[in-house]
Amino acid sequence: MVGLAAAFGSGAMTNSIAEIEDAGCIFVIGSNTTACHPLVARRIFKAKEKGARLIVADPRNIQLSRFADLAVQHRLGSDVALLNGMMHIIITNGWHDTDYIENRTEGFEEMAKVLEIYTPEYVQAITGVSPSDLEKLAELYALNSPSSLLYAMGITQHTTGVDNVKSCCNLAMLCGNVGVHGGGVNPLRGQNNVQGACDMGGLPNVYTGYQPVADPEARKKFSKAWKTPLPEKPGLTITDMVPAMLDGRLKGLYVIGENPRLSDPDWNHLSQAMKELEFLVVQELFLSETAQVADVVLAGASVAEKGGTFTNTERRCMRINEAIPPIGNTLPDWKIISRLSSAMGYAMDYESPEKIFNEMASLTPKSYAGMTYDRLGIDGLQWPCPDQSHPGTPYLHKDTFARGKGQFHALSYQDPAEMPDETYPYFLTTGRMFAHFHTGTMTRISPHLDVEQITGYVSIHPKDARRLSVRDGDILLMSSRRGEIEVPARITPSVSPGVLFLPIHFGETPPNVLTDAEAFDPMAKIPEFKVSAVKIQKQTAC
Q: What's the predicted TM-score (pTM) here?
């Protein structure tokens, strides 16, 4: 969100999912779309049937690569260099949209100056992508407008995650692909309501609709609505919370619908930090790894047992309705929070999710003000929807960017925080697989899903397997500077030599024992889950 907001003025997906079908070119980078966003992948395949060109850039040979006009496997963490190289070629060949750049953007000259050194040969030395493939990537993207760029956490979970996103924005603006139907820069959110949670102020520095906590006028408005003074200082990010636990500044933690013991980096570091807490509360559906160490577990209701709204990756706010009453002693999350707040001295007397939504809409005029429960209906509405006569907005930045003019950023490639060396010679990257979702809190208790993949594994290239005399199923000891785990091997050419892949869903083989809590993007504070340095040793044969 930070990178998109800096370039465009809004941190949201620019275009609608359905518009992917109308793209002339689809560029997928840092997204294993068929596994993580299969309904979006379906749109990609429909676009292909209509004649769209598909290009894929991913360090792994993902399923989508098999259907691409061109797929490249660039080195982990080299996204800025790859994108800069594409832009160097586009400018050299005069394929950029000069009128769009002049009329709708700023900062182009500074960026173009930085791009001069990113020749195909220079980029090959960083990324491993051949000059011919790089030139073809640039040509397909630039000459088949409108081009839609899709990315996911393969772009963002780096120490340079914000720069990676800004580079995607640079490329799209260079070719005039923002503010047009079928184009745009389109993040595919990692969970079903990430966009909605952020829209609702689920960030430490903003209220709803990204109104800054530090803004006196915004703070005054919310203080008046909530009838209480509000702090001027933003709260802590997740990466700030762990050091605060360790040094005693953070004494209590309330976790809702999250499993940080498996989803946050450096298991050992985090476990020690949680031991320093005086009180840990977890609000969950199931006994996740985090809930198992909580002082109190509050039983939340499932999606079928509650009503409310969510906002998906394309900014579409939609209603959900209670199908059955909450089972046992569970309650919808809003009721639990309201009762806790009231018991602690601040009365929350909301009668329903609709009342909460109406309050939010009245305080969020630029994006949600025109929405009501009745208007949302079955299909929902896409923000911005500023008044009740407004139909919602399928794509953003049509005539002008949210910030006025789009901002190019002059960016140079930086190595990941941790590179392989003699002691830790392998790259490790992490991600999702088709059958499971994030930390497996829900999917692994489903017998139908769990049978698809019941244990964790590490993907290893056949060349590396032969060198280590490793066969499928052999147990490998994986070690980093943070810790070690034992995990069965899966030999596959989907990873490059020297690269290992671990899925994130399995508490028995948790990748975050190996990943680094100290390596995160300085602006977005997102950990570098996609690049770590590790070593492996064969333990037992299958």
A: 0.94
